[in-house]
Amino acid sequence: MFQQDDTIVALATPSGSGAIGLIRLSGPEAITITQQVFKGKNLSKQASHTIHFGTIKDGEQIIDEVLVSLFIGPHSYTKEHVVEISTHGSSYIIQKIIRLLIGKGARAAKAGEFTLRAFLNGQLDLSQAEAVADLIASDSQASHQLAMQQMRGGFSTQLQQLREELIHFASMIELELDFAEEDVEFANRDDLKALILKINAVLHKLIQSFEQGNVLKTGVPVVIAGWPNVGKSTLLNTLLNEERAIVSEIAGTTRDTIEDELTINGIVFRFIDTAGIRVTQDTIEAIGVERTHEKMKQAKLILYLVSPDQPKQIIEEQLLGLETATIPFLTILNKADMLSESQEEVFNQIPLIRLSAKNKTGIEELKTAILEKIQLHNIAADEVLISNTRHVEALQKTESALANVLFNLDTLVTSDFISSDIKQALHYLGEITGLVTTDDLLENIFSKFCIGK
Q: Most-buried pick from 4, 183, 186, 398 (CB within 10 A)?
């Protein structure tokens, strides 16, 4: 079991030199331990949510001038006594103070242990705790908005409402089992069936939201594909505004995929430059072409580049292959500034976006077209999106258990089978918010957090 009766300490800001370093303690002795090395006001007599100036001393040696913030439990992030010491950001100072605090009785915190204690003490449920990690990792407006919505309990509230309705019927069916010999029915089967259909509709909507939620969290994979020498690497460099990929007049320069991120209108896109698609006898290039096809299958959007010097027949054959696939794509005519009058007639027959990656023209129009093509909408204040694989798997298991309940209701099986499947559904819902947990599950979740959070 997880230990909670001791006091933990860790650096809560990134390691390395900086202007400020923040050292966090949480536990029953957080204030007492800090007081042993802090010279200033008596911290044990101060009010919660106050800040105090003083020095940290090792015997008679002053280590640093600091600000100490007090959060007296249960009015803190972990619901325990929490102390935060703001020091100068010297690695030497930070490590010296942490060693002092450990010497006075604190223990070095494990990854995610502060948030784990917040969960174990009822400050957050498990899905909210996971959203804390997502919030820290968010690097775009969309991923930040998604994490904030989940951390504030929108998802948890919806699940709690579903569980409460199911629990009512589960208790009625359990009561029937107590009176099995009298053949009574406390849970109206039609009402139960209507409830399960309603819950499954909600679950289906949540499961369907995972595709958008996941791409908002991790970024939209966009593959840049096409024949060799159509300007794929040049386009990647232009989008990123840096020389990320090697550009050469030699066909087949790109042998492997190159990825980088760009934020457009608050959404992160992962642009993937790929090897040119062609039949080749070069073993290494052939592997690159194979990887291109794999990346195209995994993409949410394909930017397919063509250029004026390509034969029309080859372009039409490749576009026909894209049209038969299910992945959205945009056809892009690169080197549009080099188009001759005779080529103009050919490309006028193909719906495409014209640009010059080398001259950086048409790039804003391309970004607009990308946003329109992926059709990601802004998250409404009351909208719930799923972005966690663990959550969507639990929802799918819940949906399956409730489908068994519906089947049992239609086949008029005994109440004990119905009760068993409802309990299974409640179990899976409980796994999401942490009403049902195991030590292995918690260890797996919180070990992915940063130390100090």
A: 398
**Per-residue pLDDT reduced to its tens digit, 336-378:** 888 777 667 667 767 788 888 888 889 999 999 988 888 775 6
Token pair recorded at residue 42 = 């008596």
Question: By three-state DSSP, how is residue 155 classified?
Answer: helix
Task: Name which of 97, 76, 80 is nearest 88 in CA terms.
Answer: 97
Burial class (CB in 10 A: 0-12, 13-18, 19+), 411: exposed
The dihedral over CA atoms of 34, 37, 41, 45, expressed in degrees to the nearest 10, equals: 40
Whose tokens are 């010296």? That residue is 96
User: Residue 172 class from Cβ within 10 Å (0-12 exposed, 13-18 middle, 19+ buried)?
Assistant: middle
pTM of the model: 0.76
Q: Which among 423, 388, 383, 427 is positioned nearest to 405, based on CA atoms? A: 423
Quote the tokens at residue 86. 């703001």
CA 318 to chain centre: 35
**Is the separation of the CB atoms in 335 and 356 below 8 Å?**
yes
Bridge partners for 246 per DSSP:
none
Tokens matching residue 142: 């969309």
98 and 105 Cβ atoms separated by less than 8 Å: no
Q: How many CA atoms, within 13 angstroms, populate the side-chain half-sphere of residue 13?
A: 18
